[in-house]
Input
Amino acid sequence: METDNDILAEYIEESREHLSHVEQIFVEIQKTGQVSPGSINDLFRAIHTIKGSAGFLGLTGIGTLTHTMESLLDSLRENRLAMTEQITEALIEGTDILNDMFDDVDNSNSRDTSALIALLKNLNSGAPAPAAPQPAAAAPAPAAAPAAAPEEKRSVADVLNQFPELAQYVTPEQQAEAAKAAPAAAAPAPAAPPPPAAAAKKEEPKKDAGAPSAEGSKHEEFLRIRVDILDRLMMLAGELVLVRNQQLMHLDQADATLRSITQSLDSVTTELQETIMRTRMQPIGTVFSRFSRVVRELSRKLSKNIEFVTEGDEVELDKNILEAIGDPLTHLVRNACDHGIEKPEDRKAAGKTDPGRVTLSAYHESGQIHVDIKDNGKGMNRDVIRRKVLEKKLKTEDELARMSEADLLNLIFLPGFSTAQVITDVSGRGVGMDVVKTGVEKFGGTVSLTSVEGEGSTVKLRLPLTLAIIPSLIVQSGNERFAIAQGNLEGLGCLYDTDAFTRVECAGAREVFRLRDTLLPRVRLKEALAREKMFDEDALSVVTEQNSEARKELADKYKEAEEAGHPIHYSLNFAVLRSGNLRFGLIIDHIHGSEEIVVKPMHRAVKGISLYSGATVLGDGKVAMILDATGLARHYNVRDVSGGREEGKKQKTTMDDGTELRSLLLFSNGGNEQFGVSMQDVKRVEAVETSSIEKIGAQEYITLDGVSTRVVRLEDGLRVQSSSQPENMFFLIPQNARKPYGLLIEKLIDSGHYEVKLNRDSYQADGVEGTALIKKKMTVLVNLEQLMHLVDGMWYGGQV
Amino acid sequence: MSYEDATEAAANSTLQMCTFRMANRLFGVNILDVKEVNENTNVTPIYHAPPDICGYINIRGQILLVVNLRETFGFDQGHKVAGGTGKVVVFKHSVDEPFGILVDEVCDVVSIEQSRIVDRRANEIPSDAVKEFRRAKDGIVMGVCPLERELLLVLNARHILGKYNTKADKVA
Output
């Protein structure tokens, strides 16, 4: 038994489908500039169907508007009026208003649409008045009218159009009406309430099959299915997979018949599961298509010329995600048009092509869907961002100074940030990017931004394929396995042997890894699981102390074993997780590899546990909990210890008296002078034999990996003692050299972290940074790049 | 016994009880609430969960919560099951969100007259057993039914997860 509300709900849903179809047609019309009689017919039918039931349900507001639109469309379809841009605009506006009305049906009657209705009527009156009662049979059907798209309810007029000889069986009133403004509106049939859902479901495919459209149906065969039935199907398919697995396990390989049956079962099951998955997938083009209109409207509003291109429309995404990315994408497209693309005159001045271009593209990559929103506009000005951030006091100058370019760009995702010069109704209220980020992250996606000033910006969205199935990493701690969503995962790491206890430092009560140029807070999964209460400072310091003692013991044991000649091997596995801007290393026992998992929500009784975001069944049938990075970080009280990434190429920790901790390679060039270079500047060091040095003119070369590499000696550029040229020397290849060079050195002394108090005055020369006391010895710090330049310049007479 | 039979039995105020043992005591739940009994299921512990939650098990692709009533009733923990295996009585969807209870041993199906169930609140049999179950909150124990050789403690499966109804975030 259907109530009025059910009918209304169904009507709204149906109408929305019609409206989206209408929108698609308009997009097509605007794109091609061509109006086919077929598309006018489709428009007419859709609007007409909406109108039909609106009257019945007492939705007069919708009824009146659709009626006016319908009249106009009818004039178009009868060729009494030619399609103009103005008409298209008016009709599009009508569609928009209808969409709004369906959003709030209860108040749709009180909405004022008189202005638009007047406009529509006005446009329509440009056409000759609708012909007075004519014999219906003669109703001049445009060529394509009989094409009869597989519309569910056909009106008398349509039937008449197709079968003029039937006219005699129709009442005169119906004929007259059919010939008047709305031929299709005449018959009582279309005004009937939409058939109950069940009937409609049965009917649709039958109709499509029974009345194949002449011009090739644009509608595909669709069946409305309740999502919970789909979910149940999906679950059953999952169960089938497990039954299949059991069958495979107990299969008697000797029995050929049974084996082939099992194989068929296997493949059918897999296919079944994949097909059911696909029921939820829809092409992203359905979302993309609506933006061509958005861009068109924006370009007019902003008086810019913008070309809109989409790529990868066919890429399929889960329906839920498709619905969820609509708003973020709208923000981004608007931003690209408003902030990105310049005004025509600016583009000309910059020597760029006009129109500007906004591209939306979707593609698969590493198990995720990537959606890029790219514009070739003005890009982002770092200084403007910096200024804005300071103005709005979102970050301090000190913080900004330590940020990398990429981090700086990402500041625009901060709440309350907006660089628009003028707040327009398009964008610039300072909420945009923040909303985008939270919106996308809510369903497990990520946003990143790249921008080249003067050339444009690209925003990349990375989205999961579906919400239900996510790629994940399976890890183990103790006897239990856990899943970590790939979206939360930034990388994996492993420290071997001594590194396992030397690369750990304490920052207050917390332990951190020192990895490359970053400090990474560490979290032991075992400890996090063992303690139910959140970690406070006290708990953390207890844990940290225990761990550092354990580490010491371990280090001693390791040393002992090594000295005894039976070295033990240690390895420390950790996963680098990300929660918002916070990164931390999660220490685990084993890494099992990645698996696609089906996320199941937590049971009511255990929902409050912040550590988990759900549970899943692993391939072997055991349940594993899915770890939640944010919850873990909160539970373990993780703080950002690095203050953002430590900046710059050179890792320097400057103390108050100007002493820095630097990682250096120490060497000597014969004699007793000690030199040092920054480890970051060194690519590698090769042992070479001086006899292999070849001379061409004044230049020396050594062939390394098939490349003739120029030999530079310290004494070539600096006034230092010359090498005694023993047979075995070392060849230091610099990082980032533009030409193949190497520095020939005699002896390696040591490498490591040293406290360096740089003295720039004691020894000044090009190619030298300064001197410092290292290992109680005066050491000349060589600037490799400068030295190479210097030597090169001398050889080439300054032409580098 | 078919479903119809069982329904009829209930109408005649005879209850079919699925009985099981836990800490040497005999318990029963209405067989109409029981979906199945599973043996040798692998329980995945849920760290930070309340003590009476054993963990999750997978039954044909469906994840079920397993409750340890020993904890609820305050019995001594004969054996800790988390991470191990156990026998689980699984309840139907109509009872609550999917869940089951961990038992030591599954016994027969017993028919009892509804009238023979003594409400624990009636205080007519002030046995130790009844006193013990006073502590079990939220009406999980409907009453006690004397059988030939021992007492059957009748449980209401619908109330087992009752305490989580309003306080879903209690755990945090």
User: Anything to note?
Assistant: Chain B has one domain: 3-158. Residues 90 and 100 of chain B are 4 Å apart (CA to CA). Residues 167-172 of chain B have pLDDT under 50 and may be disordered. Residues 3-158 of chain B form a domain with the OB fold (Dihydrolipoamide Acetyltransferase, E2P) fold (CATH 2.40.50.180).
